[in-house]
Amino acid sequence: MGSKFTSVRINAAAKALLTELVGKTGKPKAQVIQEALRDWEERIFWAEVQSAFAAAREPDEFSAETKLWDSTLGDGLMSGDLAANERDSRWHASMRAYG
């Protein structure tokens, strides 16, 4: 079964932008349009996800537990790359001790 094609009217500015993108990417116009539509769809999806998370409220029965866990964030442990680097340094030092 063959692909079906359709025409879409766009204004001169959109046509100029499409032509510019085709020149920069070396891709056919149809592919540039398809990729742009997929990117737009993904952007909308993530905006909807972010909106849903922002609208979601934590049930009241979890708020006390959340506060308890949040209090552990300042427990003095290192975080991020610094902790990994120090751990790696200690590991290498201990391996040198063995030989």
Labels describing this entry:
99 residues; mainly alpha; flat
Structure description:
- The chain has 99 residues and is an all-alpha fold.
- Helix content is 71%, strand content 0%.
- The protein has four helices and no strands.
Please give a quick description of this structure.
With 99 residues, the protein is an all-alpha fold.
First and last CA, distance:
68 Å
Succession of helices and strands: HHHH
**In angstroms, what is the radius of gyration?**
27 Å
In the predicted model, the low-confidence regions spanning at least 5 consecutive residues are: none
Largest sheet: none
- Strand percentage: under 5%
Per DSSP, the total helix count is 4
Give the helix level as a range of percent: over 70%
